[in-house]
Amino acid sequence: MANAAASTDTILVSKDGGIAIVTLNREDKLNALTKGMWAALGRVVELLAHDQSLRCLILRGAGNKAFSPGNDIDEFETERSNIAQARSYGALMHSTLESIATCPVPTVAMIHGICVGGGLEIAGSCDIRICGQSSRFGVPVAKLGLVMAYPELAGLIRLVGRARALEILLEARIYDSKEAKDMGLVTRVVDDGKVETEVFKAAQKIADGAPLVHRWHKKFAARLCEPTALNNDELEEGFTCFGTKDFAVGRDAFVAKVKPKFKGN
Length: 265
Fold this sequence. Notes:
45% helix; 10 strands; 4-stranded mixed beta sheet; 2-enoyl-CoA Hydratase, Chain A, domain 1
């Protein structure tokens, strides 16, 4: 694939038709995140965001024991041992999380097992999060004497609201999949053995849809979370789809009762 060069030993990229799969690849460490992984993940997502042939992006951890338990504790002494190092590390994390959250391509997190700390922040930046029944979630940074910085906390609050976010941070406990679903940390829970199948099924449904429409919906949803009023140009953009070729394709396919083949134009 065109973006294969973006792959590293710890961040793998593959593509199946219009679906890209990005894998956190440290299975022996349960996919614990290093500074290099944060940097590579950000580069990969930025590249894929500009791939006009892409219809859906899946983020996952290698194996089926963990999505990721968060940042590798072994790096704290060498990469996060003081304020200056932490600031540099944090800027890299925040940039990567922002790239995932603002990616115009629909994103789906495939969650097996542990999804904690930075791992939960990555999954939480995705549009859809599908996990297995045995998955576990949390942000127990209080037990490490760490603060979740403003950009990260903003993402958690957008996901579950202020009260739930504070519950997660103040109690610093681990939640099972049912609790995670109830509070909005995940969007779907399935049997452990069906996670991959369910994720690819969802990704294919997304890929079959009109890609311009998906990108508009992501843009509109993000804009509606901003406090300022919509202007006339923004309101007008809601009708732009009627001038696309994909609208004609979808309309004609609906009338003919056949599956539409959208081109993204």
